[in-house]
Design brief:
193 residues, mainly alpha, 11 helices, 74% helix
Amino acid sequence: MLDAAIACYVQRGIAATSLRDISRQAGVTPALLHYYFGDAAGLRDAVVAERVLPVFGEVRATLLGMQDAPLRGSLEAFVGCICDLVARHPWLPPLWIREVVSEGGGLRELLTTRLMPELASLVAARFAAEQAAGRLNSGLEPRLLLVSLVGLTLLPAAGMPIWRQLFAAEELGVDAIRTHALALLERGLELPA
């Protein structure tokens, strides 16, 4: 039932999804959903607790682990973590776009008030310290580097069906995103002077 709820949230959005929609997707009666979750808010809370928070727990652990590792290894770990999560949870990128990035998304407040404020500041401080030590491009904005890492991983994953169709290339999957993001981080565009 939780997986059916996520599928509906991805398709319709949290606010537009009814218990009836979820019951149809799950192949159960609305009464069964009411029995287990009470109402739509109870089901949403269960989805957050059972599906969303564990995923962000892995991201959190990776970000905390980045604090003591060499910068290259930290960036590789973050890209690897996001790509592994996307491979295991294909609902993550479209849910991220619909419910976190989009204005009015049902998970934005959760991310900005509970899951990431402290971590985002911690990671930005780490990047600023790397800059001060001369180990990171001084032209980068440390606070936006985490945003760039998310943009190199979750955004291409969210648009994967588009890229595959646009380029007629089924091989543009999670492994291609991982390889591309790491190459871009390590060597950049190598533009001529």
